[in-house]
Amino acid sequence: MRLKALIFDVDGTLAETEEVHRCAFNEAFRRHGLDWNWSKAAYARLLSITGGKERLAHYVASLPPSVTERGAMIRRIGAIHGTKTEIYGSMIAAGQVRLRDGVERLIEEAAAANVQLAIASTTTLANIETLLRTTLGRYSMQRFAVVGAGDLVRHKKPAPEIYRYVLRELGHPVRECAAIEDSSSGLTAAKAAGLFTVVTPSRWTRAQDFSAADLLLPSLSTLGIREIEQQLAAVPGTPSAA
After folding, report:
1. Domain ranges, residue 165
2. How many helices (H) and strands (E) does the chain have?
3. What is the pTM of this model?
């Protein structure tokens, strides 16, 4: 079976960005006069909540109850997150992260094989653009046929909405596409959309359950388009496996 499209998650999959996100959140808290500080352990737990604004809302809800103060903090989430996005973008643009092993090679191989590239992420379009431009060059966004950012859908991963959006935009049968993820929430979303899913755990997600993955790898350094096509062909129900 010929692979038609390869759909990438962003944070943790294309690059190990979560520590930069954590530091950006903490700096945003400081700038907004808040005494919050998310430790690495606390942030690892918060990663089960996908989406920055949703993560903030969850955290506010966990604070000691005070209806007036909690309501006021909920109303400030948009501003806090906006500041965090600006800080994160500056840190990425300064070169604080690199693509994970094998990512750029696989992207180049897909392009050479006329396999379309797409993104399905819970992060903002601004974050995606900054990361791609910094790591893959000025015109890197144009290499992706569809870029599905978190704000495009109502329900973020583990809901499958962002993957379904990307698949509709691509127009290919789901059995001819594959997803690459790093987290259990991303894996759940991709599988719920019917996608063959490769998982390469990040340093933040290694302890999560990936038993539902079609292919589990430590990195993308040895994965090629041909291997994905062979794996797809072996999936029950596909034309070549029937």
Report:
1. 5-16+99-233
2. 9, 6
3. 0.91
